[in-house]
Structure formats: structure tokens, C-alpha cells
Request: fold
Amino acid sequence: MSTTPHQPMGIAVIGAGYWGPNLVRNFAGSPDWDLKLVCDLDLDRARKVAGPHVGVTDSLERVLDDPEIQAVAIATPARTHHGLALQALRAGKHVVVEKPLADSVARGREMVDLAEAQGLVLMTDHTFCYTPVVQKMRDLVQSGELGQIHFIDSVRINLGLVQPDIDVLWDLAPHDLAILDHVLPGGLPSTGIGATGADPIGAGRACVGHLTLPLPDDGLAHVHVNWLSPTKIRQMVIGGSRRTLLWDDLNPQQRLSVFDRGVDLARTSVGGEDPTASRVSYRLGDTWSPALPEREALGSMVTEFAAAIREGRPALTDGRAGLRVLEVLEQASHRLAEQAGKTYADGVMVPAGPPPVPQQAAAASVLEGAR
Ligand SMILES: NC(=O)c1ccc[n+]([C@@H]2O[C@H](COP(=O)([O-])OP(=O)(O)OC[C@H]3O[C@@H](n4cnc5c(N)ncnc54)[C@H](O)[C@@H]3O)[C@@H](O)[C@H]2O)c1
Reply:
């Protein structure tokens, strides 16, 4: 599919619920895009969001059959991402899909493989990666300003909507994981993930979750997500051997602080009863706050989607970035299942041991084979 530079590309937004309207607003306001259609199973919702100059539909086929639509943005619940994205890719459309990329690693991988086979852009909307503050954090970490990363603490807690189908890790941690994947030079680790979760209100799924991820050279990252906290906290601390940064997203006056302070282990050993303690010294330096431009992250995201298509390259937060996040989430679900004496398979916790094959399902699979 060829596009000339500066010619707006046709796009449709699928899903006009809570998040879809933000995509609609940004695609409609972008010179890179010509928003053609808003598609939602609930046509009234689509109408409210689309405004007077954009078409609406409840039919995916109408979107996919329209030759003027070159790309789609999917903002429907996670369990539907895989099916919708595969249909769009098969129809030759570029796809940006909301986080999380899919509801399992296997389904996410199928999306990535199909996009690559078709030569189409598959992007994950990891929105925070397009915020000026996270871009500055990435610069600071990747330029070596912080030195070797020793620890990361990320806290994302408030009174959140208890989701009917996913636990708090799958709901909130994609943000923290996408940020870590973007900021850390080696991206997210793929093994050694630890996780604990708790459901103190009996909701049937973890409402409080803690994740640990190993970092190179014995560093450690920790993520805390929680739907039950009346106190809202959105903070990330990245501690390095040279400097440490604090991102406090609820403090617009000083969203990012860099501390020229830390702990050093002196090279020369000092005698005495406790040589280790005597070798530790504390650096006390300045704290400064980098200037950050004010810019809507989704505006940059839709620009990046267009640029990736035009330049025929992977987007900054491509399908593979989405897949790395899913890999951590799935490992976390395995840890939570082990904690409960269960096993995790395809989005559900089942009692440990081989799953029973129900009579009807067994009969159906025999019929399936006979077709
Ligand atoms: N990037 C972010 O910061 C951010 C923030 C919130 C939500 N999200 C993500 O956005 C996605 C949507 O979340 P939400 O809170 O808006 O959900 P929602 O339930 O409020 O809205 C989903 C909409 O999709 C529609 N829909 C469902 N299946 C459809 C289909 N097959 N075809 C057309 N329309 C369909 C529904 O009718 C509904 O209007 C999720 O993946 C969520 O994780 C991302």
C-alpha cells in the first residue's frame, strides 16, 4: 500500500467507550490522518464520539471493505484485540492496538507474526512512552547520566475499578512494564519474574499486586499496583550508581527530579571489625528538575504511527514491545497461580493437575476432527 508524504491517511477508530474518544480526538486533529469512521457495536456511543463530520458504523466489514481506510486503531476490551487485529491485518490495514496488545502471549505472537508476514505496521499504544517525562527519563538512563541502574520502584495505586475479567496486574501493570521496556537499554527482562497478589475483599481476582524483575548486575525492579488504595500515588524511582531520578506524575510543578546523591562503596578496604560498613560512603549533591515541554502523549503516538507506516519501519512501541509486556504479565500470572496451588492456562487459574475434559467438549472435538 503506497502513500505519498504529507497526504493524510484514512483511519478508523474501533471502540468508542472510555478510551476510544481520546484516540478519536487525536486522529481527528492530526494532519497525518483523515479520520473516516468510528466503529462501535453500540452505534449511539459511536455517534456521540464521532461528531458531525465523521461517519459511524457498527460493522467491522464496512471498515475493512473501505479502500480509503489504510489503518485502524483498536480501543476495545483486551480479549477482543486479537480477533479484531487479525481481521484488519488480513484486510491489509495497518493496526495500532490499545494496551495490552492481547490477552495472552500466544495470541499476541500470532498478531506480530501476521503483521510481519503482511509487511504491515502493528503498533501498541503504550501511551506513557510518548509523554515528555518518560522520554526525558529514557534519555537520562540511556545516556548513562544515572550510571548503572541499581533499583527501580514503581507505584501505581488508587481506588480503581475492579475489572470483571482481569486482575490488577493485567489492568495497571502494562503501563509500568511498557515504561520500563522503553527506558531500560536492554528492555524488559524475559525471565526471573516474581509476583505476589492479594484479594482481601473477595473480588475473585488479585486487587493488590507486586511484581519483581531482575536487572543486570544484581539490580532489582519492583512494581506495586493496587485498586484498593484511597491514596492515589503515581511515582517511579530509578536509582543509579551516579544519580537517582524521581518521577511524580501527580506533581506537575516538579514532575521529574534528579538527585545527585547516592551510596558509594570505597575501593580501598579499611580495617576494623566490620570492614564492609566502614567502606560505604554517602554522596550528598544537588537536586535538579529538568524542564519538560507540555505536549499530549497521544498526539505524539498518532504521529509516530503515521511515520512508521510512511517510513516502512517498526513503530517505537511496536507489536514486539507489546509482546514483551505480555510475557512478563503471563509469568506473573503463573506465579500467582502457584501461590494459590493452581496452574494458569489461557487467562484462567485452574486447579493443579491435568484439566478435566468435559464430555460435551470431547464430543465436539471429535466432530471437529471429522469435518
Ligand atoms: N492507553 C491508555 O492509557 C489506556 C487507558 C484506558 C484504557 N485503555 C485500553 O483501551 C481499551 C478499551 O478500554 P475502555 O476502558 O475504553 O473499554 P470500554 O469498555 O469503556 O469501551 C470499549 C468499547 O468497545 C466497544 N466494542 C467492544 N467490542 C467491539 C467490537 N467487536 N467492535 C466494535 N466495538 C466493540 C464497546 O461497545 C465499548 O464501547 C482496553 O484495551 C484498555 O486497556 C488504554
Q: What stands out?
A: The radius of gyration is 23 Å. The CA atoms of residues 129 and 179 lie 6 Å apart. The chain is about 35% helix and 25% strand.
